[in-house]
Design a protein that fits this description.
With 243 residues, this protein is α/β, with parallel strands linked by helices. Helices cover 38% and strands 20% of the residues. The chain has eight helices and twelve strands. Strand 1, helix 1 and strand 2 form a beta-alpha-beta unit. Helix 6 crosses helix 7. The longest helix has 18 residues. About 7% of the residues have low confidence. Bound molecules: calcium ion.
Length: 243
């Protein structure tokens, strides 16, 4: 059964574009360009995911989110303006599972949609590939142990192995790899990686990120002849859990 996604966006061209891309990916899509109508739709129907713009006629997205309430089962991804930090914070507080900043690359939106459907299944729909336990790639099976295929990162032992062979990483490389492993299928921008690896107060250039990615690739991808860290042109990097 295809996951059913409610797209709430009043910019008709953007809404149409997102709809086409989602339908192309095999999702079922309902569109709404009005906050009040969206609230009614979301109350009357069980969607698997809601993509919710914040600036909307009728009711704004944050208000829609609040009125849906915390017990509403459908995960919500907010579409926010670039500098609307407070909107992001309020939105996450109000129960959104993720947000994406406009303008966005469609690959990033699709990646976040896949992750939200996988992590927050409403009826088990959309989670066909989220068998988790059996695949050995989804999340830590022991606290602090993260896996991707034959790669294992153990936080407590501060140790990384591939097929049992130890890989020697610097602290920064280790931290960056941990960020990738705990955010599989999420496209990470250079800014996000920089914040997570170097901290919010880091003052410097985001191309530091490219340097660390290069180090990781040489120690892992090239050393073991695999393709772990993928480049998403114009956006950042991603590790995909299924290939
Ligand atoms: Ca809008």
């Amino acid at each position: 059964m295809a996951a059913h996604i409610l797209v709430v966006e009043d910019e008709e061209k953007l809404a149409r574009f997102v709809e086409l891309e989602l339908v192309h990916e095999g999702y079922e899509v309902t569109k709404s360009g009005d906050g009040r109508e969206a609230l009614e739709l979301a109350t009357a129907n069980t969607y698997d995911l809601i993509l919710l713009d914040i600036m909307l006629p009728g009711l704004n997205g944050l208000e829609v989110l609040r009125r849906l309430g915390n017990s509403h089962p459908t995960p919500v991804i907010l579409l926010t303006a670039r500098d609307a930090v407070m909107d992001k914070v309020s939105g996450l507080d109000a129960g959104a599972v993720d947000y994406i900043t406009k303008p966005f690359a469609i690959e990033e939106l699709l990646a976040r949609v896949r992750v939200a459907l996988k992590l927050h299944p409403v009826n088990g729909a959309g989670s066909a590939d989220a068998s988790g336990a059996g695949s050995g790639v989804a999340g830590p099976d022991v606290e602090g142990v993260h896996r991707w295929k034959s790669l294992v990162l153990d936080e407590k032992k501060h140790r990384v192995t591939y097929d049992g062979k130890e890989i020697s990483l610097t602290n920064r490389e280790f931290e960056m790899l941990k960020v990738f492993l705990t955010n599989q299928d999420i496209v990470l921008t250079r800014d996000t990686l920089l914040e997570k690896v170097c901290g919010y107060d880091y003052v410097g250039e985001t191309n530091v990120v490219d340097v660390y990615v290069r180090f990781l690739r040489s120690k892992i991808d090239e050393a073991f002849d695999i393709k772990m860290i993928e480049t998403v042109r114009g956006v950042g990097y991603v590790i995909k859990s299924e290939q």
